[in-house]
Amino acid sequence: MNATDCEKISKSFPQTFLPPVFISVFIVGLFANGWGLNSLRRNWQKLGDVNVFVLNLGIADILYLLTLPFLIVHYLRGSKWIFGEVFCKVTRFCFNLNLYCSIGFLTCISVYRYLAIVHPMRVMGRLTVSHSVIISIIVWVFVSVQSLPDMFFPKKDVNGTFQCFDTTTTEYVEEYLQYSISWTVIGFCIPTLITVACYGHVIALLCCKDNIDKVLKQRSLTLLIILILLFSICYIPYHVLKNFNLWSRVLSKHNVCYKWFNSVYVAQRICRGLVCLNSALNPLIYLHVNEDMSAYFRQLCRRTRTAASQLSSNTLLSNTFRNI
């Protein structure tokens, strides 16, 4: 099919789809992560080795959430960036930092859970908070170094309008595809395989042995469900469609076009919105790894239900007196 036969890509779709998603994620994510980090601060003396990873997970989320208002303005203005090229690249860098640090810290939590359940005697007293801090620093440095090349790719359109691409311009799309695939393998596929292997072994052990504590079983299964939710909604679709869309751009650049290019672009934009949901879903990890926060959350829910019930009763009573 010739380039003239290509279906025009619907560039207007992100301008209508992404702002409501970003606004929702910003409000929910900022509240949930702020509440979680504040709970960690109040229970700082009880901070365990796994909670160090949870703390870093929250910091990564907050860092990205603070860039969302600028992206909201960007898409509401018809994908025109008004905050300068440097801040555009910083915003995209924060997105990559949040995404792959989240995956990294979730992998660390999975490995620690695996060691604590499958090899409790071997690791007893050997996994300390200091080890968790060192590993967290390694994750931050590794992800930062791997994300730096993205900042050297141009984000400005060739016609002079600054759109702040989340990948790069058509001129460098082949190089960016290679970078994206390598980063997908290193930053996503390998951690995902490690997480699946850890929890596959953990679940097999919990199902085969009857002497395992029921609370431990429940907490492990809950974390597994959360991870499945995060990976199936946020991470897997994003990485598949991102590279698929880059590949379609490479084909289009070489005048090889297909009708499904527009569908791939729209699907990739949807996944771009879904992947940022991880900043709103990650706080579920707070409730799982910290018993005090989980108990506080249940208590808060009970108070809310009680208050709502009292308000409903008072309203009903007031209406009754008015009718009399």
The fourth-level CATH homologous superfamily is Rhodopsin 7-helix transmembrane proteins
Shape: globular
Average pLDDT number? 81
Could you name the CATH class? Mainly Alpha
Main sheet attributes: strand count, strand direction, barrel closure:
none
At CATH level 3, the topology is Rhopdopsin 7-helix transmembrane proteins
Strand content: under 5%
Number of domains: 1
Instruction: Tell me the distance between the termini.
Output: 78 Å
Q: Residue share in helices?
A: over 70%
Helix and strand sequence: HHHHHHHHHHHH
- Number of helices in the DSSP assignment: 12
Give a short summary of the structure.
With 324 residues, the chain is mostly helical. The protein has helices at 13-42, 49-65, 68-76, 85-118, 120-123, 129-147, 173-208, 214-253, 261-275, 278-281, 284-289, 291-323.
Characterization of the model:
The chain is built from twelve helices and no strands. By secondary structure, it is mostly helical. The protein has a single domain (9-294), classed as Up-down Bundle (Rhopdopsin 7-helix transmembrane proteins).
Secondary-structure topology with pairs:
Elements: H1 13-42, H2 49-65, H3 68-76, H4 85-118, H5 120-123, H6 129-147, H7 173-208, H8 214-253, H9 261-275, H10 278-281, H11 284-289, H12 291-323
Helix pairs in contact: 1-2, 1-3, 1-9, 2-4, 2-6, 4-6, 4-7, 7-8, 8-9
